[in-house]
Every structure is written in C-alpha cells, then in structure tokens.
C-alpha cells in the first residue's frame, strides 16, 4: 500500500522501501569532507630575506608589521601542476607593504588535500616587513 507524499516523494506503508531523494550525492559529499586533510610545517628560519636589491642602511628601521606571503600550486589527483616557489612567497609578502626585505622570516609549507581528487600545496613566508 503506497501513498503519494509531498513533491512526488513516495511514502510506503507496509514494508516497501522509502525513497525521499537520491542519497549518492550526499554520501559523496560526506566522504569528501571526511577524507579531506591538511598539514602545515615549518621549513626553516631566516634572519633576512628579499627578492629585491637592498640598501642595508634602509632596512635598519623596523616597521613592526608582520606579513605573510604564499606561493601555491594545484594538485590534481596526485599530479602537481607546477612547483611552489619560495621567492614568489617572499615577493607576495613584500608586495603587501611595499617593503624591500623581510626580517625574522619563518618559512613554512602547507598542504590541503582531498586524497586522489584535488589538493593545494603552498610555501609560506612570514616576517617583519622593512
């Protein structure tokens, strides 16, 4: 014995299966969220880093502003599309303030990933802009 419910959903009385929509897209989304992962790590520390010509007298004045720059690549399935570049991460950080160098630099690596589907891998350079 079956009756019609709202929006065409079948409501079954007396033992037949209940179908209220497709569960597969929801299950796939749940699987992707459950397997998504990420990690970060410190690659190293530098006293001073720059991708520009420096006047050593000009970098003595601290700005007091810490900035963070990233250079990221996409990873499709397990294939990286390019390589992240440390110089591009430093340049991204310097672009935010117009400075010429970063002092007390922490270099890191970040990976965010849905295994065998898509990922993002980045070099991160964080330091005090001068």
Written account of the structure:
This protein has a 5-stranded antiparallel beta sheet. Strands 1-2 form a two-stranded antiparallel sheet. The chain is elongated and about 70 Å long. The protein has helices at residues 24-35, 86-97, and strands spanning 2-4, 10-12, 37-49, 66-76, 79-81, 102-114, 118-129. The chain is of the alpha+beta class and 130 residues long. Mean pLDDT is 84; it is low at 1-5. Helices cover 18% and strands 45% of the residues. The protein has 2 domains: 1-35, no CATH class; 37-129, no CATH class.
First and last CA, distance: 77 Å
Low-confidence stretches: 1-5
In percent, how helical is the residue content? 10-25%
Instruction: Based on Cα principal axes, name the global outline.
Output: elongated
Along the chain, the helix and strand elements come as EEHEEEHEE
Biggest sheet statistics: 5 strands, antiparallel
The number of domains: 2
Strand content: 35-45%
Number of helix segments? 2
Mean pLDDT: 84
Task: Provide the spatial order of strands within the biggest beta sheet.
Answer: 3-6-7-4-5
**Gyration radius, to the nearest Å?**
25 Å
Structural class: alpha+beta
Oligomerization status of the protein chains? single chain
């Amino acid at each position: 014995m079956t009756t019609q419910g709202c929006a065409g959903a079948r409501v079954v009385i007396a033992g037949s299966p209940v179908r209220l929509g497709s569960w597969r897209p929801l299950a796939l989304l749940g699987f992707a969220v459950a397997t998504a992962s990420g990690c970060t790590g410190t690659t190293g520390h530098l006293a001073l880093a720059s991708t520009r010509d420096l006047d050593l007298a000009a970098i003595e004045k601290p700005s007091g502003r810490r900035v963070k720059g990233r250079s990221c690549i996409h990873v499709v399935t397990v294939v990286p599309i390019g390589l992240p570049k440390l110089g591009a991460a430093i340049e991204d950080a310097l672009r935010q303030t117009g400075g010429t160098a970063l002092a007390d630099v922490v270099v890191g690596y970040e990976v965010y990933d849905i295994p065998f589907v898509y990922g993002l891998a980045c070099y991160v350079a964080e330091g005090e802009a001068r």
